[in-house]
């Protein structure tokens, strides 16, 4: 089936096929911000920028503010549906489960940045102050297990994750457990951190960010499909850009990490700190072309059509259009 989010062949308005999405270009989307007040304080914006990202304040206001407002609307609607279902079923008062948002996209496309901005913004609405953010990298198999399975060069591919543990984690959240734990990954040591966990306590919203959060269910040993974590999402965002643009962002980030994190002797990438610029570019391109690029093409891009909303970025990280599933 053709990807319903693909623009190919859809340039001629007259021939445009019916689509399950409504698309708003930058101007139409930004107009939604209207008189909305940005809930972020100066401090918070500074903190978000402090994470090494040149976040444009107009971008925060014109793109992420309407997005967080839209999400808040969905959270409110889910709450009303919860109450009506409870009344309909007459089963007492089971507490409402957290609203789960998946954030998907390639390595280096800006998932973490998007997820962190949304977390901060959503936490400002009094209806849902407790917003947790969990990244799926904690569910990667540890390096020794990846070595054993011959997957060290496939880090980030669906099979490099403990998918059963990840599904259990999301099922526990959507079962309404008060406290749920996830393992932690360190980009510095390039491995899962043993014996450390992130604890999510009574969240109103949980954002789950990762390369593969929109992967369809796997076919199990008995030939039947299992559950996909996206079966438990209330909303999902796919962060999108041209593949050659993302490759360039990956190389740029690698170069800036060479000046910072790679200088830490504890870094797995310390061996790259002394590379010349040309050597570093070649090394980053080699990692992209052998691991992250193929993973994008083979596994991540095919899931774009499953998202509730696609944020399409240009080379300067500005969002060019937003595509939203019709309801
Ligand atoms: N909205 C944005 N504005 C400016 N730079 C951004 C934005 N989003 C991401 N970046 C930059 O792009 C690179 C990748 O972003 P990141 O959020 O780390 O990606 P991911 O989590 O998908 O790997 C980083 O260098 C980050 O600083
Ligand atoms: C840790 C990652 C797999 C991303 O994991 P995610 O949180 O998206 O599940 C990725 O950032 C990564 O390290 N990939 C391996 C190839 C590389 O070094 O770029």
Automatic annotation (TrEMBL):
Keywords: ATP-binding, Coenzyme A biosynthesis, Cytoplasm, Kinase, Nucleotide-binding, Transferase
Swiss-Prot/TrEMBL catalytic activity: (R)-pantothenate + ATP = (R)-4'-phosphopantothenate + ADP + H(+)
Residues holding ATP: 105-112
Bias type Basic and acidic residues, positions: 1-16
Domain Phosphoribulokinase/uridine kinase: 100-251
Region (Disordered): 1-20
Principal location class: cytoplasm
Location relative to the cell: Cytoplasm
EC primary class: transferase
UniProt EC number: 2.7.1.33
Pathway(s) it belongs to: Cofactor biosynthesis; coenzyme A biosynthesis; CoA from (R)-pantothenate: step 1/5
UniProt xrefs under Pfam families: PRK
GO molecular function: kinase activity
Keyword Cell division in annotation: no
Family of this protein: Belongs to the prokaryotic pantothenate kinase family.
Name of this protein: Pantothenate kinase
Organism: Nocardioides bigeumensis
């Amino acid at each position: 089936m053709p990807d319903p989010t693909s623009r190919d062949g859809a340039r001629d308005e007259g021939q445009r096929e019916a689509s399950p999405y409504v698309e708003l270009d930058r101007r139409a989307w930004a107009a939604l911000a209207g008189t909305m007040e940005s809930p972020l304080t100066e401090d918070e914006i500074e903190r978000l920028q402090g994470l090494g990202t040149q976040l444009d304040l107009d971008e925060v206001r014109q793109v992420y503010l309407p997005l967080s407002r839209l999400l808040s609307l969905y959270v409110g609607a889910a709450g009303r549906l919860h109450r009506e279902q409870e009344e309909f079923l007459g089963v007492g008062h089971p507490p409402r489960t957290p609203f789960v948002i998946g954030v998907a996209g390639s390595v280096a496309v800006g998932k973490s940045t998007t997820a962190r901005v949304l977390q901060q913004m959503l936490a400002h609405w009094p209806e849902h102050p407790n917003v947790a953010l969990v990244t799926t990298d904690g569910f990667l198999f540890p390096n020794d297990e990846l070595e054993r399975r011959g997957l060290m060069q496939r880090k980030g591919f669906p099979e490099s994750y403990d998918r059963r543990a990840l599904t259990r984690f999301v099922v526990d959240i959507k079962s309404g457990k008060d406290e749920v734990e996830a393992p932690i990954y360190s980009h510095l040591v390039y491995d899962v951190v043993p014996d450390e966990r992130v604890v999510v306590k009574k969240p109103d919203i949980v954002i789950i960010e990762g390369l593969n959060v929109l992967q369809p269910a796997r076919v199990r040993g008995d030939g039947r499909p299992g559950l996909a974590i996206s079966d438990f999402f209330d909303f999902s965002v796919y962060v999108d850009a041209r593949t050659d643009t993302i490759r360039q962002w990956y190389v740029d980030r690698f170069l800036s990490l060479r000046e910072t994190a790679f200088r830490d002797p504890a870094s797995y990438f310390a061996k790259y700190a002394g590379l010349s610029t040309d050597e570093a570019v070649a090394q980053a391109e080699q990692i992209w072309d052998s691991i992250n690029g193929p993973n994008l093409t083979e596994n991540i891009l095919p899931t774009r059509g499953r998202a509730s909303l696609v944020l399409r970025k240009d080379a300067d990280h500005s969002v060019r259009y937003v595509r939203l599933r019709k309801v």
